[in-house]
Design goal:
Layout: H1 9-30, H2 66-69, H3 71-98
């Protein structure tokens, strides 16, 4: 499938999916005070430097901290998030299937309203 400007739709849909995933994970998981993985208060204290192995905040995403939650819980978190991302991708594909079909040829930006539709240099 192609867009109006003859570029493939798949890269645009992929970028939209990645942006949605990033926003939703931050809003619902990392920045939500009721989430057990809330790190919004700690964002101001980040320095960008590498963290020591015994640091409490070694992982950027706390839901993948196997030392803290164990491998079974991290695997479950990854499975749930992966299923949610897959469902979101399917929802975007379904929304694309039901949207109105764009016109095949782009319409001119403006029509000539002064001249008559007759042929010739002078009208």
């Amino acid at each position: 499938m192609r867009c109006e400007d003859d570029r493939p739709v798949a890269p645009r849909g992929g970028v939209l999916l990645f942006i949605l995933i990033t926003g939703l994970v931050f809003h619902l998981v990392l920045g939500n005070p009721s989430s057990p993985f809330d790190v919004a208060a700690d964002l101001d204290r980040l320095t960008g430097a590498l963290l020591a192995p015994d640091s409490a905040r070694r992982y950027t995403y706390p839901f993948i901290d196997a030392a803290r939650y164990g491998y079974a819980r991290v695997a479950l978190n990854a499975l749930v998030l992966g299923a949610a991302f897959y469902a979101l991708g399917l929802a975007l594909v379904a929304a694309d299937r039901f949207r109105p079909t764009p016109p095949l040829a782009p319409r001119p930006l403006r029509e000539n309203r002064i001249s008559s539709p007759a042929r010739g240099p002078l009208k």
